[in-house]
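Handout, section B. The chain below has 224 residues.
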Amino acid sequence: MKPGWYVVGSLALLGFGWFLAPKLGRRLAFFDVRSIEVVGARFVPMSTIVGALKLPASASIFDPLGPVTSRVRKLPGIKAVEISRRLPGTLVVRVTEVVPVALANTKNGLRMVDERGRALPFDPSNTAPDLPLTPAPDSIVAGLLGRVREIDPAFYANVDAAWQVQGDVVLRMQGHRVWLRPDAGPAELRAIRLVEQDLARRGKTYAELDGRFADQVVVRWSAA
């Protein structure tokens, strides 16, 4: 037999084995799912994620992952999910949760809200998140907070509370307030940062920084 036929035959056997391995594996108890590892969950309880898999007692790691992935993805608060196998018997569930940007007062008490102002099914009492407070779910306030969080996480971390005043947003920060337009972006935040640093360097005490105007930040001094 020519050498070329050995190569072709070997490749055919490998392909056939690759095709049959999952089917044979599902029949072997050695490959039964014995553990589930959840990665990335902070707010959604691990028990909720594991329960959403709805695995039968005899589940194999070679069972199709599409249906179980779809079930986890449908959980409230889950943005994305990826499930992989780790031999011999572990499923690894990696989730990406919807990011909360604020704690809002609702008729059901304090609830976390996303950047669209939608209440999330997360229990604040379980995770004690350090988030800005808002009087109520508000898409304008939440949208600005989400943008600030992406642009300048350190600035966002100093926001204690936020609320809307006639279409603009007020941020209560450490010892002062910051006024911004709902569409404020990197330029406005950078200007606020520079003014804060300059005033701190000069030891000036102030009550408000107003960044709603083009190319300037208005400083309103404290009574002291």
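Note. The radius of gyration is 27 Å. Compare this with the example in section A.
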